[in-house]
Structures are given as C-alpha cells and as structure tokens.
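Sharing a chain and its predicted structure for anyone who wants a worked example. Both blocks are below, sequence first, tokens second.
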Amino acid sequence: MIATIGFVWFLAIPRPVQPATDPLQPLRWGAVIAAVGADSLSTLAALRKPGLRESNSLLSGIATKPAVFLAVQSVVTVAVLSFSEQLRKDGHRVWSWIVVGIVSAVRTAAAWHNIRLIQRVK
C-alpha cells in the first residue's frame, strides 16, 4: 500500500519537458551558415569589381551597403534555421533536411557563380 502511494505520488510530480535534441543539428546549421557566408562574402567581393552588379532585384538596392546587406542576410538565415528547427520539432525531420539542402545548394551555387564572375573580371 505504501509503495503504491509512493508510486502514484512519483507520477504526479510535474517535470519540465525537455525538448528532443538532434545530434545532427550542428551539421544542418553549419551547412546553411557556410553557404550563406560564402554567398554573402563573394557577392560583396564581386560588387567591388568594376562592371559587376547584383542581379537579384530584391537585393540590388541594399547590396551596395555592406552592413545592411549582411544584416538582411543574417535575418534570412535565422528565419530559415528557425523554420527548419520547427519542422524537426513537429516531427518532419525529412522536410527539415530538404529545406536545409535546398537553401544550402542554392546559396552554394550563387557563391560559385560569384567567384567565377570575379575570376573573369581579373
């Protein structure tokens, strides 16, 4: 009887819920941050070359202002990582990886394109 009361009391104690951790989170975040960093830095380097300009019409107005450009890139990166994490927490691990993969691939391709343009101008 005492053991049963003790067990019921043990079950009744509220415990803080720990969010499930993902051991691959640093890999997902690192991929996005590296791709965005490469794209952002190569874009700024390309814009310092004569004759090169930002072809993305959404960014062309702020691309000449490095601090604003990097701030916008940072906000977008945080939004992508937050969206990916929310997908993972909601049980959509595959979609979380798909979002990270697409963003990383597109931003890496943009960085590669920027570097090729810089090499052609030299």
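Comments welcome. The chain has a mean pLDDT of 83.
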